[in-house]
Amino acid sequence: MNTSRLLSFILFLSVFFNLSAQNSTNSPTSMFGIGDISTGEAGKYVGMGGVGIALRSGDFLNGLNPSALTALDSMKFVYEAGANLSFEKYSSNGNSSSSITGNVRNLGMGCRILPSWYAAVGITPLSSMGYAVTIAQQVEGTDGSTISSLFEGSGGLSKIYLSNAFKVSKNFSLGANLSYVLGNTTQSEVQGNTTIKEISYKKAFYADFGMQYNMALSKKWNMTFGGVYGFKQQLNLDNALTVINSSNSETLTESLHPKSQYLPQFFGGGVALNNKRLTFTADYKCTQWSVMKSSNSSVKFSDQQQLNLGAEFLAGNLFENPWHYMIGTGFSNSYVVIKDKKPLNSYISAGLGIPVMTGNLLSFGVKYNTQSGSNTGTQRVQSLSFFLNLTFNERTPRSKIY
After folding, report:
1. What is the distance between the alpha carbons of residues 260 and 252, in angstroms, rounded to a whole number?
2. Which CATH number fits domain 3-400: 3.20.20.70, 2.40.160.60, 1.10.8.60, 1.20.1250.20?
């Protein structure tokens, strides 16, 4: 890799770190666990419902299954950068609020290293915490007197990853993501003259794996099977509690030993059916969040089941920058269970990929998500999100790659 290319990517990373510090959620449920989890929606497949386990392409980076890197054009460096903007509405017990959030979604680059070895490096958000809730609590020993408490939280986790993929045979590929997860969250409670603030610094090394097998069904149709697996990894926590009394300017700080937090084990599979113009694909993924323990007796964590469906149609000249039309849908349960209520998420999405110059793709995606609350007694969340992603490449002589 030449110096200018490396410096450009380092600049990308510095921009990401500056922007990813911003919250990408204002949901009250993000106060639990490690926050709202990023579903991995980035790149071209946003408009396809977030699928990716069985997708392969020569001109985009698939962060959901590292083994898909073996489909990259052997003569190209592929770069990706993406961001999103979301409009969210929260409703509960006849009250509602709304917010606008946005953030960088992904930065990455990948290429072939050796004839059977492909690699990519990048960074992406993993979770986000952002909320501000005021609760009126009754004062014990009084006749109905109440005092208001303001609960606030911010922060999140990001993942820096190095992906490696190996073409074991013509049809079979294996891959691994080696990641460093880091970030911090700040949670505070303000009641009268007293502010209680807890800051948690989190970090961990993490690895997950993927495989793909593609086969020809006929002269026109191909089928790809994919699988992913990630093992459970405990987060290293460095927590500090600060109590500030504004009436007498006293401040007390001490270290905490909270309940353990984990990056959970997950496994999933997918299948894709495609010809030169059409692609149909489906994913299933199970993430075992039940390994997390809550310090709040009314809050538990549940294994999350997720099903995604997507389709893509290529229009125009297939050999000269075709247009990409995408559609998708998905269903999942929330991993946060409050008072034994399990909200369900459902969403639909659509996308458009516009060719920009030769071999580059500008993708637009829109997603409508709703989290049921009326039949579970929990908060209802509705969101409309817009995604923008640029995939561009640089053709490189093979002699410069290996």
Report:
1. 24
2. 2.40.160.60
